[in-house]
Amino acid sequence: MCNELHLGKSLYLQQHADNPVHWKQWSQGVLDEAQRKDQLLLISIGYSSCHWCHVMEHESFEDDAVAALMNAHYTSIKIDREERPDLDARYMSAVQLMTGQGGWPLNVIALPDGTPVWGGTYFSRRDWSAALEQIAQLWREDRETVLSYGMKMQEGLKELVAVHQNSVASTFTDTDLEDVLVPWMRSWDTDWGGNNRAPKFPMPTNYQYLLQYGIVTDQSSVLDYVHHTLERISYGGLYDSVHGGFTRYATDRFWKIPHFEKMLYDNGQLLQLFALAQRQRPSEHYAQILRQTWSFLQKYMALPNGLFGAALDADSPTPDSAREEGGFYTWSKEELDTEKLWEQEHFREYFDLGPHSAWEGKYILHRPLSDEEFCAKFELSIKDLKGLKTQWFDTLLKASGAREESHPKPALDPKAIVSWNSLLVSGLAQAHWALPDEGFDRSAAQLLEQLWTLTYTDQGLRHQYIDQASGEGYLDDYSTLGLAMLDMFSVQSDAKYLERALTLAQDILDLFPAADGMAFRPYGRGVKAAWQQHLEVEDNVIPSANALCAHFFARLGAITGTSNYSKWASEALHGIHEKVFRFGPNYSHWLSLALHEAFGHHEMVICGPQAKESAEALAGSHYPPLAQLFWSDHTRDESIFKGRFQYDKTLFYWCQNNACDRPISSSREALSLWKD
Asked: What is the pLDDT of residue 638?
């Protein structure tokens, strides 16, 4: 069989299973075969919800002439980046080194042993065919040039992935953090939020750090910028006002025109970010975002096994078997006319449906004004607007369901990735602290239990679940799951979560040897060649694996009193001090650790019969970024609880930098400490 992708379980691979290209899956056997044939590798990497991956497939990989060219000269390998983030990281680094940029689809030509020699992202059919012919000719006629370039790429990648640790350990101070902030502020869009350029990504980790920094340093301008950004993000376009959930990014400055795919990792992290924002500056708008986002996830991304799929496609299928970008989410004037919405001036103004605001002939529901601003402009009360909005959204939801035959729901990738589901657990845990009466804690506990049951095996943690657990877990899988365990230990005070976190921490130490005495190798021991390694210390949309691990170890060390965990987290932060200091926005999750180092860390431990209620009251009243919260309503053996429980009263223990004040029984005093 020429195309072998039908053998894979990945939705992305299945999407290419009918291509005339003789696709193979990555394996050592395929690499050995390419070496026997003396044939270059063509490595194409993407994911199921990637719009431009679909475009290139239709233009090139479904074309018989292009396929014949690929089949004649190359061993063609298709990789799902979500299944194999190690290979994606390796070849993305190579393409970024070659071209200065990256993205998906990621297309690389490599020597038979896997060494990259050429690459890029999306190519038109014409450019792709021309490049393939030229490189094949060069391999036939001037092989030494190709081999020489491969050696240069190996050397370049060795240097690129190296972590140059500081020769002198440096600690972070409040002045350092201020110095990081000053140049960062020059990139802020104070009108529309986010960065002052397009495209715009939500970047939850960046805004979580800025929220923390603004609270700790009491800088209202920073806090105002963060809240302004979150409001603009959630006014539609990037945020789906009708169905709920956040799309991948916005292509414009105004957060209006989204790239329509919806990723689990975005929604899990944004759930957490909005929960923290709700705790710091409560609003009904934030609360509604939390409820609606969770409702969206349950309705559109939940799997029968209790886990959550990786992504919803950017494109929607059409009745004629074509694909329409954003078809499920956009509205024509005729559709809005039919539903008697277009004729309502308030509706058109609220969603900015002017004559020049259409996108490709359709409308993306987007609100340029807050509810308060809209009411002031049109002399409406908030109550009146709420009534109008209820009517509008009820109508739109019914209409969306009714038109499903012509605008089907985008495909859900049923691949449940451990790290992304763990991010969702942490988001739900924070949503519980923000809105303790709405059941987010129960949902988080159910998801976490199912995730542990299905993916932690006798062979250790697996990376994903599709019908069964598969793939060795990576450092980010272990770290995010460990953080989710600690979040739920804080929320539910169940000892099993701490026990499992300790198991995961030991697994990390056993499975991921440190490189250069500092950073862990995020993809384990399997990679031997230096150029193939990717240490991953720079944060992206998702924090780097090593930053996640540092947070996990720092928190675990504070809870257990085990200095080795805290020591590693501190040394890891010190090791990249210069990078963090120079390129702050690219290391925002590390900056959160630096904040603890500069200002100290705290724990509030509550013990007694009213411990749970007291914990929820404190957490809902304020968000102190430097403090962890723990409670117990019975006697316990864990070090943070041992000897602290009394049956006749509830006591509050306020601890700073591993030293605790005398316990107090006054909830008012505890609240004052918590807020100060």
From this structure: 87
Rg, Å, the chain Cα set: 26
Residue 529 in any domain: the answer is no
At residue 415, the 3 state secondary structure works out as coil
Amino acid sitting at position 434: A
> Which of 369, 388, 414 is the endpoint of a domain?
414
Q: How many domains does the chain have?
A: 3
Domain CATH for 115: 3.40.30.10
pLDDT (tens digit per residue) in 336-393:
998 899 999 999 999 999 877 889 889 999 999 999 999 999 999 999 999 999 999 9
Contact (Cβ atoms closer than 8 angstroms) between residue 519 and residue 572: yes
Together in a domain, 265 and 336: yes
Tokens describing residue 421: 């589901």
Which amino acid type is present at position 396?
A: L
- Say how many Å lie between the first and final Cα of the chain, rounded: 68
The angle, 0 to 180 degrees and rounded to 10, between the axes of the packed helices 475-492 and 545-560 is 40
**Dmax of the chain from CA atoms?**
87
Q: In this predicted model, what pLDDT tens digit does every residue of 609-640 receive, in sequence order? A: 999 999 999 999 999 999 999 999 999 988 88
Q: Is 494 inside a domain boundary?
A: no
Provide the pLDDT for residue 167: 45
The CA-atom distances, in angstroms, between 171 and each of 42, 176, 182, 478 are 46, 9, 19, 27
Residue with tokens 């050397």: 155
Is the alpha carbon torsion for 19, 22, 28, 31 positive or negative? negative
Strand ranges (DSSP E) for 106-254?
A: 106-110, 116-120, 249-250
Query: Residue 111 has what pLDDT?
Result: 95
Rounded CA gap, 388 and 204, in Å?
Answer: 31
- Specify if 436 maps to a domain: no
Residue 326 forms part of a structural domain: yes
CB 491 within 8 A of CB 499: no
Structure token pair of residue 477: 């899988």
CA 349 to chain centre: 33
Torsions phi, psi for 292 (to 5 deg): -70, -35
Which one of 132, 161, 190 terminates a domain? 161
Cβ atoms of 314 and 261 within 8 Å: the answer is yes
The parent domain of residue 140 ranges over: 5-161
Same domain, 11 and 151: yes
pTM of the model: 0.93
Calculate helix-pair angle for 220-233, 204-217, nearest 10 degrees.
150
54: helix, strand or coil: helix
**Residue 513 backbone dihedrals phi, psi, to 5 degrees:** -60, 140
Residues of the chain where predicted confidence (pLDDT) is lower than 50: 167-168
